Amino acid sequence: MCTGIKINYPGGHVAGRTMDLEAPVDYNILYLPKGYPVAENLLGGFHHSQYKMLGVGFRNMDPLKDGVNEHGLIGITNDFGGFGLYDNQVDKKKNNVSAFYFMNYILGNCRNVDEVLAILPTVHISSHDMNGNKVITPIFHFMFSDSQQNCIVVEPEKKKLKVYQNPYGVMTNAPKFPSHQKLLQTTFNQENLNQFNAAKDLPGGYDPKSRFLKAYYLAYQTLDNHDSQSAFGNLYRVLSSVALPKGFIPNKKYHSYTHTVYLSAYDSPSRRLTIQSAQNQMVYSIVFDDIEDLNQRQAIFLPAGFTYQTLK
Description:
Blueprint: E1 3-9, E2 12-21, E3 27-32, E4 37-40, E5 46-48, E6 53-58, E7 64-69, E8 74-79, E9 95-97, H1 102-109, H2 113-119, E10 123-125, E11 140-145, E12 151-157, E13 160-165, E14 170-171, H3 177-187, H4 198-201, H5 208-221, H6 228-242, E15 250-251, E16 256-257, E17 259-267, E18 272-277, E19 284-286, E20 298-300
């Protein structure tokens, strides 16, 4: 599941996501310093980061599910689904990395979307290392946005990486991005969204296509994104509209329910990370200047349970 959304404001943008999981997983904020071994090199050793990054990972492990680097490049991973999308062999002429660490590799080595586009031909994602050993290979696709408000989606296709310009600022899950794009163009008149009767005809389902349409419409119809603070507030409202409450989508495999475990949102100009858990509606915030030791990996954990602030 999961939905990624980008909202522009004058001079910047915020981008965020719902993290929808089939079963509860512990998660925490991570700070990874410059020079850190951010991704396993499938030819041996590690790829090291050129840039600092802040993001969210699972179980205090290094792979980021979403994050921002010191230059304001924001990245989001979403489940994609499919078979045979990644090669099962390394390419010794390229930089080899698993899908598990691809987000880290890009945020650690690119300052903007143009640099992502330039580096992609040199990167090979494989499900096995050079010795033929299988590595963790989640079927992800990725959304990246930069300080110039550029936005792209990167998807695996026939063992290669396909890039799509993303003027809609939305990413959900399979099918491929062009299918969402076609559906959106046949559903809305983008030159006059006010013609659409949203109160009656806006999709209410939680399937990827419905969430794509709903997220796009609500984000683009949201008013008063005049600065990062107002854009953050509006982004959280739109993310909440596509979040999954726990209880109505059972998952028999894990004896649990598919639901949204956290919302996160990032501001590109300030490199600010914000996060809100499903159990705790308080929004927490952190920037690079808040890190005590910028030379060391840091893990930050959120308070558990519902929290409120007393008015005085």
